[in-house]
Amino acid sequence: MLILLPPSETKRDGGAEVPLDLDRLRFGALKPVRRSVLAAVAALSRNREHSIRALKLGPKQAAEVDRNRAIRSSATMPALRRYTGVLYDALDAESLTDDQWAFAGATVVVQSALLGPVAATDLIPAYRLSFDSRLSLEKGVATLKKRWAPAVAAVFDAHPGLIIDLRSEGYAALGPIPERPDAHYVRVLARDAGGHVRALNHFNKQAKGLLTRALIEAGIDFATTDELLAWAAAEGYELRKADDASGDLELIVPEVAGEPGKLMAVLR
């Protein structure tokens, strides 16, 4: 089973004084693309003004360029600790046990714009790059989607087990999952007091983080979609197959007093 997560714009500083080692990252077949993207970011970082424009940085974010300049030599930490924000706050990697970390390392994958999909336990540096970032201000330079999508799609296609895709659309485009019965993109929806279901926007990140945490705590490597759905039902999660032919799954969370932000109490 693979649980695919999006990264976050915000990242924790620091880590162990161990530089990035591409040979130790999961999905070794992606090493050529990783080297290509790293080289492009290094070249872009040599020009601060170009970097600021290409990365769409604000006046107070210029230090992000320095992060990118130091990617190959800066400290590293496990991917699940590196990323911060709503999804990762809900997942709360810091409180995982050793056994849960081991399970996360085998099943949870974060779709980095810089390094492609990396395991939860892969050691990565802090960086600044988004799915829609430009690697050069010159015309004709391949986009991140063109660089990543074919190689990552091949990696996921070769994975024989269940795939649960919790990535945002932008990051899902960097590595499409295969079109098969056991590979699912997950939509997060909210059900109001009247029973009406609608898309859940900002708080969908919290719901995805909580679901991922629950899957890690369960520690079950589900072999089929039906096994996953049976577990979800037993745990009180409303996770179902979409009515359309998309193959998507729908995670439906109840609104509490009209506030989807109170998902923590509802999903626990």
Roughly how much helix do the residues carry, as a percent range?
A: 25-40%
SSE order, as H and E? EHHHEHHHEEEHEHEEHHEEH
Q: How many distinct helices?
A: 11
How confident overall, as mean pLDDT? Answer: 91
Shape: globular
How many domain units? 1
- In total, the number of strands is 10
User: In this structure, how is the largest beta sheet organized?
Assistant: 8 strands, mixed
**Structural class by SSE content:** alpha/beta
Percent of sequence in beta strands: 15-25%
List the uncertain runs.
257-265
Rg over CA atoms = 19 Å
Structure description:
37% of the residues lie in helices and 16% in strands. The longest helix is centred in the N-terminal third of the chain and has 15 residues. It contains eleven helices and ten strands. It has one domain. The strands form two sheets. Strands 1, 3, 4, 6, 7, 8, 9 and 10 form an eight-stranded mixed beta sheet that branches. The protein has a two-stranded antiparallel sheet with strand order 2-5. Strand 6, helix 8 and strand 7 form a beta-alpha-beta unit. With 268 residues, it is an alpha/beta fold. 40% of the residues are buried.
